Amino acid sequence: MTSLPRGAWQDVARATGLLSPGGEVAATVFAEMSALAARTGAINLGQGFPDVDGPDDVKAAAVAAIQAGVNQYPPGPGIPELRAAVADHQRRRYGLDVDPDTEVLVTTGATEALAASVLALAGPGDEVITLEPFYDAHAAVVALAGATHVPVALAPTPEGFRLDVEALRAAASDRTRIILVNTPHNPTGTVLTRAELEVVAQVARERDAIVVTDEVYEHLTFDGAVHVPVATLPGMAERTLTISSSGKTFSLTGWKIGWVHGPAELVTAARTVKQFLTFVSGAPFQPAIAQALADDETPRALARSLAARRDLLCSGLREAGFDVIVPRGTYFVVADGARLVERLGLTDVEGSPAGGVELCRRLPELAGVVAIPMTAFCRAGSATHERLRTAVRFTFVKQEHVLREAVDRLVALRHP
Ligand SMILES: Cc1ncc(COP(=O)(O)O)c(C=O)c1O
């Protein structure tokens, strides 16, 4: 075929910054940076996946399920044990009352839960508010739904990245169908405060909007930061779809077992779409995750260990000359490279001071480390895009010895 076919993929590519003016589709910056890491032997602190697998007993449970013949289509909404485990988890951890029969849907990771929820509930003429910077799948599913994406800034402040609540109020309109929240937030590591979420709730109630909340990092918070599920705020359970998954909580990102819960009407809407996306998935993984969800200690231990690894990476980045915004959750830290770019005299092709993209392309050769430019999580030309021009995202969900090696290499930037 000589030219690419027209189709909805173009909307997705455009929404995620992957469509060139000539209609070519670019690789994601994640793919570009991972390929760069493989080519140069650099340490890949770009893509956020753990380099140590989750608990042995959970893996053994999946193996046992395969051996026991759990290998055919599971029930459409997910196996009853997993739905019950999700409901029990939400009750135990957050005091939420969830009916496992009508209010929980098991999905192929949080990604499918997001897609099913947004495709089910928003369409042309509707507006979907997200935070900016945003996880790229959020922009992609809004585009697939044919809805209008309205990003609202999480702005860097001395207290970390904070929700611009006035911008949120101003962005909302009677066309706002969904407010898509993500806390703890990828890529900034922000844990939204109760006060910030109360503004989200107030705006949602005023505009009669649905909140879809992506809480995949719910257990990965540090320094006593408390994750507040949107559905726990007064009057919000009835208008909120809560999404999470086992990938981050149990370091099993490849299993893709996720879920969404909320009022039966909203879950029915999401299920109606989900059944034609994948129908079902992960039969032998579902009982294993049902077992894992009863364990509160493994995620706590992971959060403690991640906090220590965050500290290690943050101090190395500071020593290397980055300005770091210390995250209170997730796998990620945002570091501004403006001073480093200036000191090293790095420029882009036009001779202007290099931005994050250029810096990330040069980091493997300069320091043997790979990161992701923050502009990849922004809409081209937005104020947030401009504000984060020189910022890059590093992950610290790697083993301590890997991070130590990365830090040693980064610190060498001090004395090139
Ligand atoms: C904010 C956010 N949501 C969703 C996902 C995807 O989750 P899953 O692998 O369960 O589909 C990720 C993975 O990086 C994420 O960072």
From TrEMBL:
Keywords, in A-Z order: Aminotransferase, Pyridoxal phosphate, Transferase
Keyword Transferase carried by entry: yes
GO cellular component terms given for this protein: cytoplasm
Domain of life according to the entry: Bacteria
InterPro entries referenced in this protein's UniProt entry, alphabetically: Aminotransferase_I/II_large, Kynurenine-oxoglutarate_AT, PyrdxlP-dep_Trfase, PyrdxlP-dep_Trfase_major, PyrdxlP-dep_Trfase_small
Cytoplasm keyword on record: no
Molecular-function GO term, any one: pyridoxal phosphate binding
Cofactor: pyridoxal 5'-phosphate
Domain Aminotransferase class I/classII large: 42-410
Protein family according to the UniProt entry: Belongs to the class-I pyridoxal-phosphate-dependent aminotransferase family.
Cited PANTHER family: FI04487P (PTHR43807:SF20)
Protein's UniProt name: Putative succinyldiaminopimelate transaminase DapC
Species assigned in the record: Xylanimonas oleitrophica
